[in-house]
Structure formats: structure tokens, C-alpha cells
User: Which sequence fits this backbone?
């Protein structure tokens, strides 16, 4: 376990359920200092003028004496960690959903360039989970388990990292976040070397994703150090034959059956930021409630080239 950085105004610790996850809690004094730079640009400006996103990101880093950017990049790129949870230590009247969108924007723009999210038509996507749903994806189906997966499996853009932020929730029980680090998965040696998993699979997506093409890539490949990385989601592969179909079933069962999954309740206002190559994420089912409501924000993208 390495020593954690100390930054004034930030409470930094290892997560109680895993030393691979770093908790970063933002103190009130930092929230107060962000009020002015965050008010300078409204959400429309952030959406239409990409350079404004870097401006608020720099303002956020400056509250941490320009130490935060290097720290979170070190976490997200380190195979031994690769994940942090960040958000206000306390939720107050100053912290509304607009503030949280700006905070999520600032965090991600210290890491890299967000992809265009075709589902939303923006650099981010906001979506509600409610009692009733008519969508074509597990994303909004409250009472269905969202199995462990990575993002960006069906797009051409590089997806190095993902941020998932909880903007609000009401009348919610269940729906916890599930996480699994690839190196903690019991079946990694067996399945990452299976020749079927190294074949190209076809990946499509439902109409709601607004992607009119399909891509091909294997489930498993290697990083620059020769360690396994994964690109997988259960809903979107299109098996070409029995061999691929049975491999995917075996993979799904082995992931969902892992004893090393981490299940956490994410506080409102907090965001999980994870390396998309060796962290899988999912969501447990909610307990049925007709008044259930949760709004989430997603940003995913690539690391800066420089």
C-alpha cells in the first residue's frame, strides 16, 4: 500500500472495501472557492464551447495547488488502483445538479478528452432510472441486474476511462454499484487465454444508442506490459457461431459469480472514475417502488496524448 497524497481541502483515503479504490472527499472550503469560477459558464457554454470545460478544470486544479490533476492521473493509470470515488464531503444547498455537472466536467477534463456521447448528442449523457421503463437497454431498467461490463464496446472511439456520477435519487433502496478489478477475478488466467476470447467478435447496439455501424474486436487483449485487458458488455456482442456464443455464456457466468466483486452504495453527488480496461462495473437491481427516481451522469473518453 503506497502513501496517499495530502492536499489541503481534500480528505483522501483508501476505500473501506478495497485498497484499489481511492476516496477523495471535497471539503466545504473547496466547494466555496469553486462557486465563482463555476458560475462564469452555464451548461450551454460548456456544451457548445469545449475550451470552457478546460477553464473550469484548471480552476478546480488550482484549488488543490495544482496537485489534483497529477494525482488522479496517477491513480487512474496505475494497474494496482485505477479507480477513485470523488465528491463533496457534505451536500449543501450550494450543490445542485448544475454544480455537479460542472464538477464532473472539471474532473474529466483533468484526465482526458471526452467522447461524443451519441445517445445524448453531447460530451456527456444524463439519464433517469424510474419505476416504469420502455427503453431498449438495461441502462434504465430499475429491477434488472446490470451485469458487469466495460463501456465503449460498440463504438470506434477509444474509451480509456469512464466517470459515473449520481446527480440525485429519491425513494431508492438497492441499486448499489458493483465493481470488479480484472486482476482480482478468479477466472482471469483461464478465460483471458482462451483462444475464443482472442477472436474478433461483432458488437452492435440498440437504436437508443444512435450508432449506425458495428465494430469488431476481441473480448481480451494485452496492454503494453503484456497484462490482460477486457472490452465486454453482455447485451451487445453478436456471436458468429456456437463457439463464440458458449464462450460468452461462460464469461458472463464467471464474472457474475465472482466472489471478489465490490458492492458499494454511492452517495448522491459522488462520482466513480475508473480505468475502462481493467475495471468492470455494473448495478444491482432496485427494490420495487413506484416513486423510485435516480438521475445519473456519464462521461467517457480517452487520455490526453501528451
Assistant:
Amino acid at each position: 500500500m503506497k502513501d496517499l497524497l495530502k492536499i489541503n481541502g481534500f480528505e483522501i483515503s483508501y476505500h473501506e472495501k478495497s485498497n484499489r479504490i481511492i476516496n477523495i472527499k471535497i471539503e466545504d472550503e473547496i466547494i466555496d472557492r469553486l462557486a465563482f469560477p463555476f458560475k462564469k459558464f452555464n451548461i450551454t457554454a460548456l456544451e457548445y464551447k469545449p475550451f470552457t470545460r478546460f477553464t473550469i478544470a484548471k480552476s478546480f486544479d488550482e484549488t488543490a495547488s495544482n496537485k489534483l490533476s497529477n494525482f488522479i492521473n496517477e491513480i487512474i493509470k496505475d494497474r494496482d488502483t485505477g479507480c477513485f470515488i470523488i465528491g463533496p464531503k457534505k451536500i449543501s444547498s450550494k450543490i445542485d445538479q448544475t454544480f455537479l455537472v460542472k464538477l464532473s466536467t472539471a474532473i474529466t477534463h483533468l484526465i482526458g478528452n471526452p467522447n461524443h456521447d451519441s445517445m445524448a448528442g453531447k460530451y456527456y449523457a444524463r439519464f433517469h432510472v424510474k419505476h416504469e421503463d420502455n427503453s431498449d437497454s438495461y441502462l434504465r431498467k430499475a429491477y434488472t441486474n446490470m451485469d458487469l461490463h466495460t463501456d465503449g464496446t460498440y463504438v470506434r472511439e477509444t474509451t480509456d476511462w469512464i466517470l459515473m456520477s449520481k446527480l440525485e435519487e429519491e425513494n431508492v433502496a438497492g441499486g448499489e454499484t458493483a465493481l470488479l478489478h480484472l486482476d482480482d477475478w478468479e477466472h482471469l488466467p483461464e478465460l483471458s487465454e482462451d483462444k475464443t476470447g482472442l477472436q474478433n467478435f461483432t458488437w452492435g447496439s440498440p437504436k437508443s444508442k444512435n450508432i449506425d455501424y458495428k465494430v469488431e474486436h476481441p473480448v481480451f487483449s494485452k496492454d503494453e506490459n503484456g497484462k490482460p485487458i477486457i472490452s465486454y458488455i453482455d447485451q451487445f456482442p453478436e456471436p458468429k457461431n456456437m463457439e463464440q456464443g458458449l464462450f460468452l455464456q461462460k464469461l458472463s457466468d464467471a464474472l457474475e459469480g465472482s466472489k471478489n466483486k465490490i458492492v458499494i452504495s454511492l452517495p448522491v453527488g459522488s462520482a466513480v472514475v475508473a480505468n475502462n480496461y481493467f475495471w468492470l462495473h455494473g448495478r444491482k437491481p432496485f427494490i420495487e417502488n413506484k416513486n423510485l427516481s435516480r438521475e445519473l451522469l456519464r462521461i467517457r473518453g480517452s487520455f490526453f496524448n501528451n
Observations:
- The chain has one domain: 10-183+257-303.
- The chain has a mean pLDDT of 94.
